[in-house]
Please model this.
Amino acid sequence: MSNPQQSAGLRFKEAVRSEKPLQVAGAINAYAAMLAESAGFKALYLSGAGVANASFGLPDLGITTLNDVLEDVRRITSATSLPVLVDADTGFGSAFNIGRTIRQMTAAGAAGVHIEDQVMAKRCGHRPGKAIVRQAEMVDRIRTAVDARTDPDFVIMARTDALAVEGIDSAIERSVACVEAGADMIFAEAVTDLEQYRKFTEAVKAPVLANITEFGQTPLFTTEELGQAGVSLVLYPLSAFRAMNAAALHVYRTIRAQGTQRDVVADMQTRQELYECLGYYDYEKKLDELFDKEKDEGRS
Ligand SMILES: C[C@](O)(C(=O)O)[C@H](CC(=O)O)C(=O)O
Ligand SMILES: [Mg+2]
Model:
């Protein structure tokens, strides 16, 4: 059971210990976070691609800033009691910027961040044309992040994009070096088969995350398969977002073409379902109580 008195980082670590592998649900905004929580997930994720795509209509190419991401982090952490892992791309700058990223993410209520070894002009991890910084520079990023922690349980996750660029040996060597530099967990990006996960988890003395994003380089392995390969966390960064987008486009097209939404009403979440998830009825009750009280006070 999660205890709201504990720091978000500690709650995230406890979730990793309690569910093996831990399913981490991407939540694009505060309401998606509430939906994921109601579906039973124990940890959430704010995707960098999600912030860029959904909040700004931009591609995931390192265009959004720390403040852009923080705004979404604050909205999500205010709406859920679940710990939220946040995509910090390459850390939003060099050493002092990375330190600032860690402190501000902690203040915004994040449980942890992942920082990757791509160059600042980053790409999506599942697209061609990626370039990575030298291992020493990546290790410096992690050391800086660890040093900047104000909560010892805030999770610093090192993501390596090296597999697609330099191969599995380099990716594993970097992961091991990052753990030695203090990284709590490893994000193995764009892995293409279970054997590679097995190699990662055998070599790395820290929990390893598998990014099971759709339409990318990684097959849609099940939690069971990934658990057997030693994986500790399974991430679904944009699954609900992709589904929401397809549903929204279908509704827009239908209304535009048919002049009515009648054919798509059955696909919609009802007002009651929306309100139940939001706790709307409790708010309404509170309002009634408060107004009644005011009326009573006015009378006396
Ligand atoms: C995990 C990721 O970094 C993200 O921003 O959500 C993306 C996901 C994606 O584009 O499918 C990535 O893997 O680079
Ligand atoms: Mg990303």
Q: What stands out?
A: The beta strands are 22-26, 43-46, 84-87, 112-116, 155-160, 185-188, 208-211, 233-236. The pocket of magnesium ion (ligand 2) is lined by residues 47-49, 60, 87 (CB under 6 Å).
